[in-house]
Design goal:
alpha/beta, 14 helices, binds zinc ion
């Protein structure tokens, strides 16, 4: 893998740590300069519904570094199957062969924790509904019921998942699909209410062959185009741990036959039928691609500088223990922050979040006022 120079704009070499040390501005702007970023992608709890206390998250982990944050659990619960792992209690989906199942109580848990906060703590959070099965035609009804039960709490739905390496095949019951009408019902309802949507769907299968169009790209674009009224944030640019940017797995001698990942994303952000679609650059697994080589850094920074209003930074942290964990993902992007214009940097770290989630809050509160008795 090290012998050839990938043509891809993000590259694959895992030299992230070295690059981070070599470049980047000071990550910690002081409180006088305001928060460093808002977190557009944050999980308070993990795959067994355990996590960080919400008040501690606001006061200590966000502190004066993270201004605002989305907050959600994980809709999928890892079963502890004694027959599979015995006394070992799995907390992550890679630690067990037993299935994952949809755990709707996560929404009540998040809402209750939020309602216990002080008003000034609440102001900094945007809770999201996640506890529904996107392959269930009744999923939209669950979302409505959560809004009716907990008015004044939620700003959006997600992160929920359609295709995800290693996860999709472990989910009990029907397999989710980008072509499922159940998903259309969810996105229609989100558009009607004004809920912001954070959608995870890998753009490709794991370990895909180089040279082929990402297998889920067309289905994804078709889905997005069917819901022009809905604000949709495509999580992680469609990438995953092994769902890599197109072409990076090229074997020796491959010539480039299809667009680089940058061109693919650029094609979407310049497509007038996809003006309601945003991308979050979250997850340390994604940062590793973006900072994998000087070329990847240049390409990523160029794309962010050119279309700064379409990208949001998030950590994708899951139940972090302290502030250092929260800032670590941000710091991985230092080589790229260093190459952004001040304007692009501000939009991606702060202003896009404020624009999208302020609108979502306003719209959802208005829907609740009109529809919740
Ligand atoms: Zn996530």
């Amino acid at each position: 893998m090290r012998n050839h120079r990938e043509r891809n704009s993000f590259g694959l070499a895992l030299a992230a740590a070295l690059v981070v040390i070599a470049a980047g501005p000071a990550s910690a702007a002081g409180p006088a300069d305001g928060p460093v970023f808002h977190d557009a992608h944050f999980h308070l709890t993990n795959y067994v519904q355990k996590g960080t206390d919400m008040a501690k998250y606001v006061d200590e982990i966000m502190g004066d570094k993270v201004g605002r944050s989305t907050v959600f659990g994980i809709p999928l619960q890892q079963t502890w199957s004694y027959g599979n792992s015995g006394d070992f209690a799995p907390t992550y989906y890679l630690q067990s062969d037993a299935p994952l199942y949809y755990y709707s109580f996560t929404d009540a848990y998040i809402a209750n924790a939020y309602l216990k906060l002080k008003p000034e703590q609440r102001k900094r959070l945007d809770p999201m509904i996640t506890g529904f099965n996107p392959a269930d035609m009744y999923a939209a009804d669950h979302i409505r019921r959560v809004l009716e039960t907990y008015p004044g709490v939620f700003s959006g739905i997600g992160e929920f998942t359609i295709h995800k390496e290693f996860v999709s095949s472990k989910v009990a019951g029907e397999i989710a699909s980008l072509t499922d009408p159940a998903l259309d019902r969810i996105l229609d309802f989100a558009g009607e209410v004004g809920l912001a949507v954070i959608l995870h769907s890998d753009i490709d299968m794991p370990f895909a062959k180089a040279g082929a169009e990402p297998v889920f790209l067309k289905q994804m674009k078709d889905l997005l185009r069917r819901h022009p009224r809905t604000t949709i944030i495509w999580a992680h640019l469609g990438l995953g741990r092994v769902v890599h940017p197109v072409q990076t797995q090229a074997t020796a001698g491959t010539t480039e036959r299809n667009p680089t990942y940058r061109e693919l994303v650029e094609g979407m952000v310049t497509d007038p039928t996809l003006g309601h679609v945003y991308f979050d650059i979250s997850w340390d697994e994604v940062a590793k691609y973006a900072v994998s080589s000087p070329e990847a850094i240049r390409n990523t920074a160029a794309m962010l500088n050119k279309y700064p209003e379409r990208f949001l930074f998030g950590t994708d942290n899951v139940a972090p223990p302290d502030q250092a964990a929260q800032l670590r993902v941000y710091d991985m992007w230092n080589p790229i922050w260093a190459q952004l214009t001040p304007e692009a940097s501000r939009k991606i770290r702060l202003e896009n979040y404020e624009r999208l989630f302020d609108a979502a809050r306003r719209n959802v509160r208005a829907w609740e006022a009109a529809n919740v008795k």
